Amino acid sequence: MVSVQAVPHAMGSFEPLISAGPALVWTVVLTFVFLECAFILGLFLPGDSMLLTAGIVMASHATGETQVWLLAIGAMVAAIAGNQVGYMVGRRTGHRLIARKNGRYINTRNLSRVAELLQRHGFVAVLIARWIPWVRTLCPMVAGAAGMEHRRYTVASTIGAIIWAPVLLLMGYYAGGFIQRISWLMPIVIGSLVVCLIVGTVIGIRQYRQEMSQPIEDFDLDSASAEADTMPLPGLGRAGHHPGHGYDPRELQTGRGDHMGGFHEHPSRQLYR
With contact defined as beta carbons under 8 Å apart, do 176 and 60 qualify? Predict the structure, then answer.
């Protein structure tokens, strides 16, 4: 039987992960956060679990409290920058996006769901998207392709990033503080989490390659907007239509002063806040 005292020695191979210093953690966190928010590859990378793990690792360092707050700011910046890149990618793509036929994630169904979420909830949808992994990656591109007003998108995505990164990092950090009270447990937890992240990343990259090998299928935002517009909402009849008010979301004009204004360039884009 292996004694409790022998556990740290058995886990000694993970000691470099604990003593590697914040530099490694910073590199991994900022890279993953940016990729997850900017490019399709981010769909297949561990995001939330990576931030939690980073917080736990920081708890094992003497300067962990300072480092975790600085890392939270860095992760915010990486997320905001990634969101801007994703938005511009969608903007350049136009109202036709590329899906993958029979794809698990990049399919017309998921793109339609994100488009409908943006159409119905606009600003709030961008905030919500931050907490849903696959939506977090697709939302910037769909928002850009739909012509969501850049200023409103930037404000919403920035607020989401400011909340998202510190919450997950600090959850991991304070959880790590409790784990550290049991000296032999911290190496096991960190080692296990790091192994899971490495395995998850390898599997994710493999899934990404499989996904991108599927046949290309066009996704037209016009069609998605038309379908969402005719889909009934509880108690309202057609989506966005209030009986007796003669309101049609397609009649929105650029530059309106209300909360629905700010869309341009394409008729379907006027449906998005």
Answer: yes
Q: pLDDT tens digits, residue range 119-172?
A: 888 889 898 888 888 888 888 888 888 888 899 999 999 999 999 999 999 999
Identify the DSSP state of 235.
T
Please give the structure tokens belonging to residue 177. 């503080």
pLDDT tens-digit readout, 205-225: 998 888 888 888 777 776 655
Distance from C-alpha of 37 to C-alpha of 218, rounded to nearest angstrom: 22
- DSSP letter, residue 62: T
Give the Cα separation of 227 and 230 in Å (integer): 5
Q: Tell me how far apart the alpha carbons of residues 105 and 224 are, in angstroms, rounded to a whole number.
A: 17
Q: What is the predicted pLDDT for the residue at 128?
A: 87
Contact 151, 32 (CB under 8 A): no
DSSP assignment of the chain equals: ---GGGHHHHTGGGHHHHHS-HHHHHHHHHHHHHHHHHSGGGGGS--HHHHHHHHHHHHTSTTHHHHHHHHHHHHHHHHHHHHHHHHHHHHHH-SEEEEETT-SSSSHHHHHHHHHHHHHHTHHHHHHHTTSHHHHHHHHHHHHHHT--HHHHHHHHHHHHHHHHHHHHHHHHHHHHHHTTSTTHHHHHHHHHHHHHHHHHHHHHHHHHHHHTSPEEEEEHHHHHHHHHHSEETTTEETT--TTTT--GGG--TT-SSTT----SSGGGGG--
